[in-house]
Amino acid sequence: MLTRRIAVTAAAALATMLSAPVSSYAEGDPQDGGSTECTQYTCQVEVEVPGQDGGQAGGSSGGTDGGDSPGGDDSDKTVCTYKLADPQPPADSLDWEGHEPGDGAVYEETCSWDPDGNEDLFIVRMVWLAEPPGQDAVNPAVLAQRAVDTMALLGPDIASPRAAGKYTVGVPMWMWVNQSATTYGPNTASATAGGVTVTATAKVSKIVWQMGDGASVTCNGPGTPYQASEGMAQSPSCGHLYSKTSAGAQGGKFPVTATSTWTIDWQGGGAAGQLTEIRQTDVQVAIGELQVVR
Predict the structure, then answer these.
(1) Which residue ranges make up each domain of the chain?
(2) What residues are paired with 84 via a beta bridge?
(3) Which pLDDT tens digit goes with each residue over 246-286?
(4) What are the C-alpha distances in Å from 75 to residues 52, 110, 114?
(5) I want to staple 235 with a disulfide (CB 3.0 to 4.6 A). Which of 69, 74, 174, 275 is the partner?
(6) Which of 92, 68, 192 is nearest to 132 (CA)?
């Protein structure tokens, strides 16, 4: 017989002691002078855990630390079920086993144990688990992608050039985009599974403009809005100068495509990383020649 210290709820401990045969508990039984350390949410109870032929008690089939679980050489007779504690215990509860809330979760573990094949014994306790029992480990990168999927990221919201605008060969074109959480960022979202929470933040890192005349312009920002006071000056951050008209293009307009690269930084679950998403927006632009009236 080996003495084990296990963490159970006070109510569960009482239920266990009332339902189990008296012979299941010896000098370690609190009813027989054993020690207890109880709080509102947990109770440390010393009980006698029988071992087959005096052997050391082994692990439960639930995949938790075998040192605290009933068993023995007939450990295959131990069946454990788990239920997520709702609500979760306070941060200072012993049930967290030194972990912070959000780092894994606390579950109610119920184990039926049949050491001699004659009668089932039950032990109910609160246990901390890093991952949901019976599930594969949560991949933080998968959670990060799940968070990104909720952001509804879009292509650039093009402010200039406009489809209805009038543009001229040899006149600098200023390109810029409107900024919002879904079209430029920053955009932040979180995803949680199995006690693991990952938070991701997305922002456009660059916009590549395909101008329709064979030219490509890469802008590392949203661009600078044009002011009439700038006259014929070129954009200081994102612009293009057409050298030919769009008369020969399909529909008489150049197809302009603005492609955003979203860079997403994420962290959580003891990991961190970066993801990339691509979005684009199209616009048709007419480029004409300056007409000189004589």
Answers:
(1) 2-129, 140-288
(2) 107
(3) 999 999 999 999 999 999 999 998 899 999 999 999 999 99
(4) 10, 15, 9
(5) 174
(6) 192
